[in-house]
Amino acid sequence: MPPLRRHAAINLFGVFFVHPDVRVTKRLINHERIHTAQMRELAYIPFYLIYLIEWALRLLLKGNAYRSIGFEREAYVHESDFDYLEHRKHYAWLKYMNKNKKRKKNKRNRKKDD
Ligand SMILES: [Zn+2]
């Protein structure tokens, strides 16, 4: 899920919309499936509220607000682990909410956000 101004792909209540110029990869689908799991465990609306509040607060901090959002950090860290959702613990995103926690490096740096 991206910030609105540069949406290449967006996941609305588990339905995934992609800009026609975006190549849909297995990794992108997995990223969005992780967001769908996050949404489900929060009964959807609270996911969007928490997402927007965290994003707005992170705008006040150093670094990329979007990439620092706990939901996004979990999705980026595990998007290449295609079995992740089979062993993911509920509310796993909570441990990614702490900005100071050491973050696993994402091997592939993507230009496009998804
Ligand atoms: Zn995302």
Structural commentary:
The protein is mostly helical. The chain has one domain. 41% of the residues lie in helices and 7% in strands. It contains five helices and two strands, in the order ββααααα. It has a two-stranded antiparallel ribbon with strand order 1-2. Helix 1 crosses helix 4 (70-78). Bound molecules: zinc ion. Residues 1, 31, 35, 72, 75 line the site of zinc ion.
Task: List its salient traits.
114 residues; 2 strands; binds zinc ion; two-stranded antiparallel sheet; mainly alpha
Bound molecules: zinc ion
Taking all residues together, what is the mean pLDDT? 86
Annotation, overall tally of beta strands? 2
How many domain modules? Answer: 1
- Could you name the ranges where pLDDT drops below 50 across 5 or more consecutive residues? none
The class by helix and strand makeup works out as mainly alpha
Helix percentage: 40-55%
Order of helices and strands: EEHHHHH
Question: Biggest sheet: strands side by side, in what order?
Answer: 1-2
The rounded distance between the terminal residues' Cα atoms is 6 Å
Strand residue content: 5-15%
Over the alpha carbons, how many angstroms does the gyration radius reach? Answer: 13 Å
Name the shape in a single word: globular
Helical stretch tally: 5
Largest sheet: 2 strands, antiparallel
